[in-house]
Amino acid sequence: MKQAAINYGQALFESKISDKAVQEAKEIYESSGPLRQVLESPVVDEASRANIIERVFPKEMQGFLKLVCSYHQASWLSDIFQIYERRKREKQGILSATLFYVRMPDETYVRQIEAFLLKKYKGRQVELTLVQDTSLLSGFLLQIGNIQYDCSARGAMGQLQQKLVRR
């Protein structure tokens, strides 16, 4: 994800645009392939894009969308909406994490991981996505944002390899 898309998403979150308008714009954008193609096309002139935005999107979102399109960055809108959602969940104290595993962990283990995340990151709730990844060989990999806790055999072998290469 490009830093500019992250910046746009943060700016959208900090703007005075209502969540309802953002959600409606996101649904419109994501539900129409032809609309996305027109907004992202370098062939379509700015006036035509602005006209389409005014006819299709909520009034509150039009200025933001015109700005993004004027810099030919409409292809980043999915990422921008994703960052907006992430910031919204963070403000509500909802942590999003992914647990990659080889064998499905039992419910008690999952609850312990959620408790660890709540304590460590001071959240109110955890949205934990479980993903099977047999390339880990054994153990697990826990990812929250840009932070990873690698307790897998693959990770241990990678660390050992780095130590041996440095010698």
Topology (SSEs and partners):
Layout: H1 3-14, H2 19-31, H3 33-40, H4 46-56, H5 59-70, H6 77-91, E1 94-101, H7 107-121, E2 125-132, E3 139-144, E4 147-152, H8 153-166
Parallel strand pairs: 1-2
Antiparallel strand pairs: 1-3, 3-4
Query: Which shape, going by the Cα principal axes?
Result: elongated
The number of domains is 2
CATH C-level of the largest domain: Mainly Alpha
End-to-end Cα distance, whole Å, is 35 Å
- Please tell me the CATH architecture of the largest domain by its name: Orthogonal Bundle
Give a quick account of the main beta sheet: strands, pairing sense, barrel closure.
4 strands, mixed
| Beta strands, count | 4
Given as residue ranges, the uncertain stretches (5+ residues, pLDDT < 50) are: none
* Helical/strand content category: alpha+beta
Instruction: Report the total helices.
Output: 8
Question: How large a portion of the residues is in β-strands, by DSSP E?
Answer: 15-25%
The percent of residues in helical segments reads 55-70%
The CATH topology label of the largest domain is Peroxidase, domain 1
Mean pLDDT comes to: 92
What is the string of helix and strand elements? Answer: HHHHHHEHEEEH
Order of strands across the main sheet: 2-1-3-4
Based on CA atoms alone, the radius of gyration comes out at: 21 Å
Key traits:
167 residues; alpha+beta; Peroxidase, domain 1; four-stranded mixed β-sheet; 8 helices; 60% helix; 17% strand
Please provide a written account of the structure.
The chain has 167 residues and is α+β, with helices and mostly antiparallel strands. It has 2 domains: 3-88, Orthogonal Bundle (Peroxidase, domain 1), CATH 1.10.520; 92-166. Helices cover 60% and strands 17% of the residues. It has 8 helices and 4 strands. The protein has helices at residues 3-14, 19-31, 33-40, 46-56, 59-70, 77-91, 107-121, 153-166, and strands spanning 94-101, 125-132, 139-144, 147-152. Helix 1 crosses helix 6 (77-91) and helix 4 (46-56) runs antiparallel to helix 5. The chain is elongated and about 60 Å long. It starts with a helix and ends with a helix.
